[in-house]
Every structure is written in structure tokens, then in C-alpha cells.
Automatic annotation (TrEMBL), chain A:
Protein location: Cell membrane
Keyword Transmembrane helix: yes
GO CC annotation terms, alphabetical: plasma membrane
Protein name per UniProt: Autoinducer 2 import system permease protein LsrD
Provenance organism: Pacificibacter marinus
Pfam families, per database record: BPD_transp_2 (PF02653)
Keyword 4Fe-4S: no
Source domain of life: Bacteria
GO molecular function (one): transmembrane transporter activity
Functional summary from the UniProt entry: Part of the ABC transporter complex LsrABCD involved in autoinducer 2 (AI-2) import. Probably responsible for the translocation of the substrate across the membrane.
From TrEMBL, chain B:
Protein name: Autoinducer 2-binding protein LsrB
GO biological process entries: rhamnose transmembrane transport
NCBIfam families found in the cross-reference section: RhaS
InterPro entries: Bact_Solute-Bind_Prot2 (IPR050555), Peripla_BP_I (IPR028082), RhaS (IPR013459), SBP_2_dom (IPR025997)
Keywords: Signal
Record organism: Pacificibacter marinus
Record lineage: Bacteria, Pseudomonadati, Pseudomonadota, Alphaproteobacteria, Rhodobacterales
């Protein structure tokens, strides 16, 4: 005969409090990692805590982050775009070509954005209208867009960008605050609002969780995806303008391999690679984490190969930690 | 062990990993920035840089570079070096133009910047160190053949394409110094288009057309390997000497078989050594890099700058059976 008290089950009268949820969230964990890296860097290198050095370090991630915000929405919706770095190459080549015909800074900006949009639309047509898988389509266009740059440029480089064009990638607004930082902040706020405060953002989550259910709920799934590809292309165009301005020249090898760093940043930011969940603040923190890690290791002259290993371990570690934590708490509870 | 202590242990290990390099502030820090890490040629250059540092005594060499050969990667490296306030940067550039803004900034902050091997546009560096020069190469390729022909003889040229700029300049320079090698006669010039099979056929044809041929000079890394193979296949090892410009890794077999007595190409160790010496001279001894300047570089002599602030290090380095084993694994 068992005691009746032992048979009563504890039923919570409310869900976890808001404060507790924030404390347990991915973003909090990531913020902790960012702070830890900042502290470690401060102690290991006497050069780290210097306003100008930190300002220089932001260039390690600002351009990638601009694309990562748009990519985050795309990945939440269950799609991906691996052609972003090649879009940069093509947009930069187009701008370089225009310079040869005497284009000024405003025209260059329009061309950069225009080529980005066109490339995004190209991807979008194949994915949303022909219904092909985005990973296949964009692996194809990754070679295609960069291939066109190689055909146009070959072994040569475009240079001679107007002096005023240098403002985007080399300009400073005030003291150590760069123009690219302004872009980073404005774009982050734009995507934060778009994803978390609008109907469009809710539609993106819905599509990522269950596209069929989203369709039957009256969401125009293909149109939303089309817009997301356009936005990713447009952001690649913005990144192309900044990067080209910073380098002051264009070669077809520009931004090689950047697509993987962008995707890494997105995943590190807590966006589910299978779609359906994630947040923009997470991506913002992830951008800082990656920038701080690469700059900190660079200050210690750690070879680039070790740096890649470190980023890889960080990615796996940060993703594995919450999983380990839940396994641990589940075991303790039982 | 609780999760907390596990985390603490991990953090401690990570901390220990970071804390290891002691900072020696009194040393002159010269950064040798390469196109990408893990390339034998640049690892050898780093060895040369260490040799220069040992000779100078108070120099610390920072050997660094990106993972892949991109300009963006090198800019991140340069930014980190600027932040550390290194004394000098010696760079083999992935892009002539894209590095200029970053390197200009380095110079504005008082860092000496030179390029070596693969150059940067003049506004982005103080001087550029070429491994060799066209006249030196032109002289070297005929000298390599003539050294083994004390009584003179017939030589033929196997070049790349008729429009290959480098090869044409080198052959032109070679013709200028032919007077110094009496008895050596160039009987033919053929073109293998830098294709292995065509070069092989052209070399075979040369041996058939000129039965008394003593040497084939191939100032191209593709042609020289193909010509050596053709000589082996024709059973003319010992009669026809293949020489010119080639890579030790590809030519080791030809040296071993005797099809080639010797050949030449730049020596990466000397290049890294000279770059470090030059960077040190500019940053520490107040030497101005200006057209006409003569800058000492230790055991490699002096570097004379031309009107574009470029200079040639030395004759191409000669590889033969005595040193091929040491270099064939490098590049």
C-alpha cells in the first residue's frame, strides 16, 4: 500500500517565467561566449583594448554580417543561397566595368545594387517558379556568376574607382566609427524589425516550420521566398559596394569562400539550419563573436589554418552545449 | 564532476592555450606575410627569414598569412599586424592593387612595408624585391649550357609560345651576351606552347634534325621536364644536356637520370633572407628607399633600386645533383 501523497504529481501552475526563458536562451549563451572572448583577448594581447584597433577589427565581419541578416531569413524559411560570394564578384566586376566607361559614384552604387537584385531574381526564378531545390540552384549559380567575372576579367583587375567611392569601405563617420558600422546597424535594425515585428516575418517562420500548412493558411509561400532571394541578392550587392570600395580594385577572385563564413555566422547565431527558428539578435552577437575571435587570434599571430579549426570548434561547441545541457538536466530529473 | 567544473576546466585549458607566446617587446618585429600558409616555397622563405633574424640578433620574425590565397584574408592579417605595431611588413601579395589601402595605412602608422616575390603597386610599398632580373636570367640560361661545353658546341632553345612575353625577353637578353660564350652556337629555336606533349615532340624533333646537338635550353618549367623525358626516351643521356628554368620537385628525376646536369630557378630561402634584411635596414638603419639607392642585404650583397623602387636579388640559383635532394621536397 503506497502513500497517497507519493502518487500526487506536481503540475506547474504557469510556464517558465519570461526572465527565466531569456536567461536560458541561445542569445544569452552566445553573449556569454562573446564577453568571455573579449575578456580573454584583453588579457592575452596588450594591443586588443585600443579604439582604433577594435575599429579596424570590425571590417572582419561587417560585410559578411550584412549578407548574414538576409541569409538568416532565407534559412528560417527553409531555403539557402550559396551564391552570395559569387554575386559579390559579379556585382564588383560590373562596377569595375562601368568605371572604365566613366561611371561616377552614384551610378556605381546603382549598378552594384542592381546586379545584386538581378542575381537574386535569377536564383528566385529557378527555386520558386521552377520548384528546384535552392541548394542545387545556388551551387550552380555560385560557379556561373563567378565564371562570368573570370570571363570578363581573366587575369586582369579593374581599378581607378573615383575617390568619392572610397567613402563606403574606407570612410569614417566620427572618430573611430566607420561608414560600414552604420550600414551594419541600420541593416540589423531593418531585418530585426522585418523578422520579429511584421506579418512578413511571421510568414517566414510559418513557411520554415511547415510550408504546406503555411500555404493552406493563406500565405503566398513562393512570393515570400522570391522576396527573400531578392533581399539576399540586394545585400550581396551592398556588401559588394563596401568590399570593392575598401579594396579599391576588383579581381574575379574577390570574396572567395565568403558564403561559408556567412552561413557559419547564421548558424552560430542560433538560426536552425533546417528552418523555422532563430532570431536576428543572435546573428548580431554571432557576428561579433566571429569578428572578435579572428581578430584576437590574429593579434597572437595564430596561423589562419588554426583559426579555421577554432571557428569550427566554436560552432560545434556552441551548438552542442545546449543539447548536452538538456540531456544533463533530463538525467538529473529522472 | 558537475557541468560547472567541466566548463571551468575547459576555460582554463583555453586560457593556457592563449597565454603561451611571451611578448618580447625589445626585439625588432618583422612580419613575413605570405600568399597562404602551408606552401613549401613560402615555408622555405620563412627558413631564410629566420636565418636573417639569427644573424641580426635582435629580430623576431612573425611568419603569417591567410589560409587561402585571397586579398581579403591578407588584409585581415595586415590589420592584425598594424594593431600589434610591428616594425616592418614584408609581403608576397595575392593582389597588386587590393592591398594598397591597407598597406598605405600601415605606412601612415610608421610601419616599414616592402613587397617581395609577388609585388604590390608602388604606392602601397616602399620597395619591391624581385627574385632576379631579365638580364640575369638571360645570361644564366646560356651559362648553364656553356658550363658543360668547355670546347663549345650546338645548343637549341625549347621555349613556351611565340608570344610568351617572359620567355621572349629572356631569349633576347641571352642573345645580347652570346659573345661571352665563344664556340657555343644556337642552332634552332622551337616552341612547345607550354604543353607537355607538344614540348616532348619538339624536343625529339630537335635531336633528329641535329644529331650533334649538345644541349637543349628550356626556359619554361613545362618544357624542361618534357625535354628531359625526350632525351631519356631517345637514349641520349650523356650526349644531350637539358637545362633551363625548372622546379626542383619536377626536375629531381631528370637530375638523377643524368638527362639534366643542372638547371636554375629562384631560391626561396635566399628570398626570405633578403626580404627580412631589407625590411630591417629600412626600419632600423634609416635607409631611404629611393631610385638608385643601394641597400645591403647581408650575405646576398646589395640591392640596387630602379626608377620604380624595384630591385633584383641575384642570379637564379643553380640546382644540380649536390643540392637537389634538399630542395625537391620544398617546391
Amino acid at each position: 500500500m503506497s502513500d497517497t501523497a507519493a502518487q500526487t504529481r506536481h503540475i506547474p501552475d504557469r510556464l517558465n517565467s519570461r526572465a527565466f526563458r531569456i536567461l536560458r536562451s541561445w542569445e544569452t549563451l552566445l553573449l556569454g561566449v562573446a564577453i568571455a572572448i573579449f575578456v580573454i583577448n584583453t588579457f592575452t594581447s596588450p594591443y586588443f583594448l585600443n579604439a582604433w584597433n577594435l575599429s579596424d577589427a570590425t571590417f572582419n565581419f561587417t560585410e559578411k554580417a550584412m549578407i548574414a541578416f538576409a541569409m538568416a531569413l532565407l534559412i528560417i524559411s527553409g531555403e539557402i543561397d550559396l551564391s552570395v560570394a559569387s554575386i559579390i564578384a559579379l556585382a564588383s566586376t560590373a562596377m569595375g566595368l562601368a568605371v572604365q566607361y566613366g561611371a561616377g559614384t552614384p551610378e556605381l552604387v546603382l549598378i552594384g545594387l542592381g546586379v545584386g537584385l538581378l542575381c537574386g531574381a535569377f536564383n528566385a526564378v529557378f527555386v520558386t517558379i521552377l520548384g528546384l531545390p535552392s541548394i542545387v540552384v545556388t551551387i550552380g549559380t555560385m560557379s556561373l556568376f563567378r565564371g562570368i567575372s573570370y570571363i570578363i576579367l581573366g587575369d586582369n583587375a579593374f581599378r581607378g574607382y573615383p575617390d568619392s567611392f572610397a567613402w563606403f569601405g574606407q570612410g569614417y563617420l566620427y572618430w573611430v566609427f566607420t561608414v560600414e558600422m552604420l550600414f551594419f546597424v541600420v541593416i540589423a535594425i531593418f531585418y530585426g524589425v522585418l523578422l520579429h515585428k511584421t506579418n512578413f516575418g511571421r510568414a517566414v517562420y510559418a513557411i520554415g516550420n511547415n510550408p504546406t500548412a503555411a500555404l493552406f493558411s493563406g500565405i503566398r509561400v513562393q512570393r515570400v521566398k522570391f522576396i527573400l532571394f531578392l533581399l539576399t541578392g540586394l545585400m550581396s550587392g551592398v556588401a559588394a559596394i563596401c568590399l570593392t570600395s575598401r579594396l579599391g580594385s576588383t579581381r574575379p577572385s574577390i570574396a572567395t569562400g565568403m558564403e561559408l563564413e556567412v552561413v557559419t555566422m547564421v548558424v552560430l547565431g542560433g538560426i536552425n539550419i533546417l528552418g523555422g527558428s532563430g532570431s536576428i539578435p543572435g546573428v548580431v552577437i554571432a557576428a561579433f563573436v566571429m569578428g572578435l575571435v579572428t581578430f584576437g587570434l590574429g593579434l597572437l599571430n595564430v596561423p589562419g589554418i588554426v583559426m579555421s579549426i577554432f571557428i569550427g570548434l566554436l560552432l560545434i561547441g556552441v551548438i552542442a552545449l545546449p543539447r548536452l545541457w538538456s540531456m544533463f538536466t533530463a538525467r538529473r530529473a529522472s | 564532476m558537475s557541468v560547472f567544473t567541466k566548463l571551468l576546466a575547459t576555460a582554463a585549458v583555453a586560457g593556457a592555450m592563449f597565454a603561451s607566446p611571451a611578448l618580447a617587446q625589445d626585439n625588432v618585429r618583422v612580419a613575413l606575410v605570405v600568399k597562404a600558409l602551408g606552401i613549401g616555397f613560402f615555408e622555405a622563405a620563412a627558413k631564410g627569414a629566420e636565418e636573417a633574424a639569427a644573424e641580426l640578433g635582435n629580430v623576431e620574425v612573425i611568419y603569417t598569412g591567410p589560409t587561402d590565397t585571397t586579398a581579403e584574408g591578407q588584409i585581415e592579417v595586415i590589420n592584425a599586424l598594424i594593431a600589434q605595431k610591428v616594425d616592418a611588413i614584408a609581403i608576397s601579395a595575392n593582389d597588386t592593387d587590393a592591398l594598397v589601402p591597407a598597406l598605405k595605412r600601415a605606412m601612415q602608422r610608421g610601419i616599414t612595408v616592402i613587397s617581395w616575390d609577388s609585388g604590390v603597386a608602388p604606392e602601397g610599398r616602399q620597395l619591391h624585391l624581385n627574385p632576379s632580373s631579365n638580364p640575369l636570367i638571360g645570361n644564366m640560361i646560356i651559362k648553364l649550357a656553356a658550363d658543360h661545353l668547355p670546347d663549345g658546341g650546338q645548343v637549341a632553345l625549347l621555349s613556351a609560345t611565340t608570344t610568351s612575353t617572359n620567355q621572349n625577353i629572356w631569349m633576347e637578353e641571352m642573345n645580347k651576351v652570346m659573345g661571352n660564350y665563344p664556340g657555343v652556337e644556337v642552332v634552332a629555336t622551337v616552341y612547345g606552347d607550354d604543353l607537355a606533349d607538344k614540348s616532348y615532340r619538339e624536343a625529339t624533333g630537335l635531336m633528329q634534325s641535329y644529331p650533334d646537338l649538345d644541349a637543349i635550353i628550356a626556359p619554361t618549367s613545362v618544357g624542361i621536364v618534357a625535354a628531359a623525358q625526350a632525351v631519356v626516351d631517345a637514349g641520349k643521356v650523356g650526349q644531350v644536356n637539358v637545362t633551363g628554368l625548372g622546379l626542383p620537385s619536377e626536375m629531381a628525376g631528370a637530375i638523377e637520370s643524368g638527362a639534366s646536369q643542372s638547371f636554375a630557378i629562384w631560391n626561396p630561402i635566399d628570398l626570405g633572407y633578403s626580404a627580412t634584411m631589407l625590411a630591417y635596414e629600412l626600419s632600423q638603419n634609416g635607409i631611404e628607399a629611393a631610385p638608385g639607392a643601394e641597400i645591403p642585404m647581408g650575405r646576398m650583397g646589395t640591392l640596387t633600386l630602379d626608377e620604380k623602387n624595384e630591385g633584383a636579388m641575384a642570379d637564379p640559383f643553380v640546382y644540380d645533383s649536390s643540392n637537389i635532394d634538399a630542395f625537391k621536397s620544398i617546391f
